[in-house]
Design brief:
This protein is an alpha+beta fold. The chain contains one helix and three strands; from the N terminus they run H-E-E-E. The chain has a domain of 37 residues: N-terminal domain of TfIIb (Single Sheet). Keywords: Ribonucleoprotein, Ribosomal protein.
Length: 69
């Protein structure tokens, strides 16, 4: 079974609990999403709570790290 890529830059600092929480949010934020309007895979976060499709310019407000439609 393949493991997730480890996050670089944190090293052994900040404690294991915070590093696990950070990595969970990081991978959740960077995953590929599908636009609910046009169906393209160019849907991403432009700012905190604002999600936009780069193909059809569809904008929607969601949560900070994930979108719930």
């Amino acid at each position: 079974m393949a493991k997730r890529k480890s996050l670089r830059g944190l090293g052994a600092r900040y404690g294991i609990k915070l590093r696990k929480q950070y990595s969970k949010i990081h991978f959740q934020l960077k995953q590929e999403r599908v636009c609910p309007e046009c169906g393209s895979k160019k849907f991403g976060r432009t700012a905190v709570g604002i999600w936009e499709c780069r193909r059809c310019n569809f904008k929607v407000a969601g949560t900070a790290y994930d979108i719930k439609i």
